[in-house]
């Protein structure tokens, strides 16, 4: 577990940050700032590193900092790594961003008053995850202010050791999983586990905090380089809904099952755990109760129904699925994915590009 | 965990059913206000969830007038659009009682289900007759004195500015963290039942939440039809 956590915490995106031309008052314009941004961090936290590059060239006034990628104002409360995975179909290194110090688009973005806003948002997400996992926010609420601050600072500094110390007071638990217990037996001897010491602790509700960012790609493209840019957040469907894991005897709830559960209208009504390893390529729709559902709801305008007995051509295609910059195999057990690839606030952030066949209008 | 003890929350499908019941009762008992409409979230993102027709309740263009002597806001009938934000033409059908110093503000309210907390959450935004959005501080000062008081004194209700779950815009939100706790208390203490008829959930919920943002509900709504 620790190796994976280290991998996640050390992940970083090289950024090349350009000052927006409207705010450049000097000739020649300042060179871009080159910053290595932690994946698990947030863009506004980089300001102390960035500002020195540009402070002498800014027009007079109060700073209201915001970032933009190819014209898209960036949501500052989404972790940097997630923004990169989502918006750069073909990873761009360094990632070229534009920074603004004026003209905050407050009709589009919620206000950000520096580190405090980001911290507040982080703690709220931590509470939300706590609620999802435990059915209440007690763990977070009972943390003292100074413990919360310590936890937050470890995130700001991307300091895993400090985070491990602070979060031991949080008792987030891990998702019980038959597959992890075997590996944890051997590793328990060699290292001090955090949260992992309780691999036997089952989350009370069997729910996983997940945030899914879905881009429905209408056009076909061969290479990721040819993917059309995302020019508006309205093109992304954001799903902030806990994943309920249903354990069945002898069956493994995979990442693929998780996606199908979270997007049932695209992948069939009720997901079943994968029957076996061959399932990964087939996105078969579940025929059984689809018809029941339509009649239950009366109005019937819930969704465009998936065809019964549909062929593979009719099913949505997962073109890309990224978590922490990697593309895990769809048959990976979701418990492993959630336990190892989650962010410090205990949410698993998943970016998915889906191509829905044009026959289906949604 | 005690199976029979209700935790104050409701499921997504219970929310949808409860929303329908709430909207019907509102229409019946609150004719001075425009009706709540159900907006299918399908119209915005690309999918809905499970067996439930995912959506939210919407009440828009509600005019709240803060009079000089700080009385409870009077509300005025809002037809289809008091203020058409698209065209920037304002059709002011508001009837203001005499006082020239009142400034009408318009509120949009959305009641949206939170899958994480399993409770309804109230989102709202406010704007002036010229379409300018109000910031959080302005809204708090515009709310009638009674609700401002409720806001300050209650440990369970506070307003934050957050992104609307579907519309990609900043809205104000009434924080849901304590909702399940006070809903549970409400039903145990007031209704004296362990578990409510879920259809009534929203009516009861709104009886607590409404006054915070200046919307009362008539007592008839709380009674069985």
TrEMBL record, chain A:
Q: Which residues form the Autophagy protein ATG5 UblA domain?
A: 8-101
One Gene Ontology term from the biological process aspect of the record:
piecemeal microautophagy of the nucleus
Q: Where is this region: Disordered?
A: 269-315
The organism sits in which domain of life? Answer: Eukaryota
Entry keyword set: Autophagy, Cytoplasm, Isopeptide bond, Transport, Ubl conjugation
Q: Where is the Autophagy protein ATG5 alpha-helical bundle region domain?
A: 115-171
A molecular function GO annotation: Atg8-family ligase activity
Tell me where it mainly resides. cytoplasm
Could you tell me where this protein is found in the cell?
Cytoplasm
The Gene Ontology CC terms held by the record are: Atg12-Atg5-Atg16 complex; autophagosome; mitochondria-associated endoplasmic reticulum membrane contact site; phagophore; phagophore assembly site membrane
Q: Where is the composition biased (Basic and acidic residues)?
A: 287-296
The Polar residues compositionally biased stretches are: 301-311
User: Where does the Autophagy protein ATG5 UblB domain lie?
Assistant: 207-352
Record keywords: Lipid metabolism included? no
The text of the family note is:
Belongs to the ATG5 family.
> What PANTHER family is this protein classified in?
AUTOPHAGY PROTEIN 5
**General function of this protein:** Required for autophagy.
The UniProt subunit note reads as follows:
Conjugated with ATG12.
Stated name of the protein: Autophagy protein 5
Species this chain originates from: Linum tenue
Q: What lineage is this protein's organism placed in?
A: Eukaryota, Viridiplantae, Streptophyta, Embryophyta, Tracheophyta
Automatic annotation (TrEMBL), chain B:
**Which organism does this record belong to?**
Linum tenue
Task: Extract one GO cellular component term from the record.
Answer: cytosol
Superkingdom in the source lineage: Eukaryota
Residue stretches spanning the membrane: 200-219
Q: Which family does it belong to?
A: Belongs to the ATG10 family.
Q: Name one GO molecular function term.
A: Atg12 conjugating enzyme activity
- UniProt-recorded name of the protein: Ubiquitin-like-conjugating enzyme ATG10
The answer on whether this UniProt entry bears the keyword Transmembrane helix reads: yes
| Keyword 4Fe-4S attached | no
Any Gene Ontology biological process: protein modification by small protein conjugation
């Amino acid at each position: 577990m620790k190796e994976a956590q280290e991998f996640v915490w050390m992940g970083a995106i090289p950024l090349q940050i350009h000052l927006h031309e409207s705010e450049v008052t000097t000739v020649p314009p300042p060179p871009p700032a080159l910053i290595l941004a932690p994946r698990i961090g947030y863009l506004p936290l980089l300001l102390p590193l960035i500002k020195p590059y540009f402070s002498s060239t800014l027009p007079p006034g109060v700073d209201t900092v915001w970032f933009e990628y190819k014209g898209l104002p960036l949501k500052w409360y989404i972790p940097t790594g997630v923004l990169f995975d989502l918006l750069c179909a073909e990873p761009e290194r360094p990632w070229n961003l534009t920074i603004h110090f004026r003209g905050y688009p407050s009709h589009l973005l919620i206000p950000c008053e520096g580190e405090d806003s980001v911290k507040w948002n982080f703690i709220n997400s931590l509470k939300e995850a706590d609620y999802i996992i435990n059915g209440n926010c007690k763990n977070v609420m009972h943390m003292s202010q100074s413990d919360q601050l310590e936890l937050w600072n470890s995130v700001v500094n991307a300091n895993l050791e400090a985070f491990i110390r602070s979060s031991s007071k949080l008792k987030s638990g891990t998702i019980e999983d038959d597959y992890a217990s075997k590996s944890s037996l051997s590793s328990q001897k060699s290292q001090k586990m955090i949260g992992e010491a309780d691999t036997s602790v089952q989350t009370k509700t069997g729910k996983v905090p997940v945030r899914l960012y879905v881009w429905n790609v209408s056009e076909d493209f061969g290479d990721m380089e040819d993917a059309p840019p995302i020019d508006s957040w309205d093109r992304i469907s954001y799903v902030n809904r806990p994943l309920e894991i249903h354990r069945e005897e002898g069956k493994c709830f995979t990442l693929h099952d998780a996606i199908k559960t979270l997007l049932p209208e695209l992948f069939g009504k009720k997901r079943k755990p994968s029957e076996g390893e061959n399932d990964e390529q087939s996105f078969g729709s579940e025929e059984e109760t689809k018809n029941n559902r339509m009649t239950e709801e009366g109005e019937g305008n819930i969704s465009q129904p998936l065809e019964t007995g549909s062929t593979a051509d009719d099913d949505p295609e997962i073109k890309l699925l990224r978590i922490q910059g990697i593309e895990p195999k769809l048959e990976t057990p979701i418990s492993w994915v959630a336990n190892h690839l989650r962010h410090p606030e205990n949410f698993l952030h998943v970016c998915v590009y889906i191509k829905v066949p044009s026959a289906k209008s949604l | 965990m005690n199976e029979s003890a209700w935790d104050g929350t409701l499921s997504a499908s219970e929310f949808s059913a409860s929303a329908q019941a709430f909207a019907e009762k509102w229409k019946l008992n609150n004719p001075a206000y425009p009706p709540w409409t159900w907006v299918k979230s399908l119209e915005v993102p690309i999918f809905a969830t499970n067996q439930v027709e995912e959506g939210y309740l919407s009440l828009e263009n509600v005019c709240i007038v803060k009079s000089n002597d700080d009385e409870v806001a009077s509300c005025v009938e809002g037809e289809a659009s008091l203020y058409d934000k698209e065209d920037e033409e304002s059709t002011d059908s508001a009837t203001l009682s005499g006082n020239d110093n009142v400034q009408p503000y318009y509120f949009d309210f959305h009641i949206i289900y939170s899958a994480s907390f399993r409770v309804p959450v109230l989102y709202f935004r406010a704007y002036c007759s010229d379409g300018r959005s109000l910031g959080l501080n302005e809204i708090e000062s515009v709310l009638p004195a009674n609700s401002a008081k409720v806001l300050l004194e209650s440990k369970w209700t506070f307003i934050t500015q957050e992104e609307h779950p579907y519309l990609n815009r900043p809205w104000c939100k009434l924080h849901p963290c304590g909702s399940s706790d006070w809903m549970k208390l409400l039903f145990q203490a007031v209704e004296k039942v362990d578990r409510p008829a879920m259809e009534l959930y929203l009516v009861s919920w709104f009886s607590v939440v409404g006054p915070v943002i200046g919307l009362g509900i008539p007592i008839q709504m709380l009674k069985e039809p």
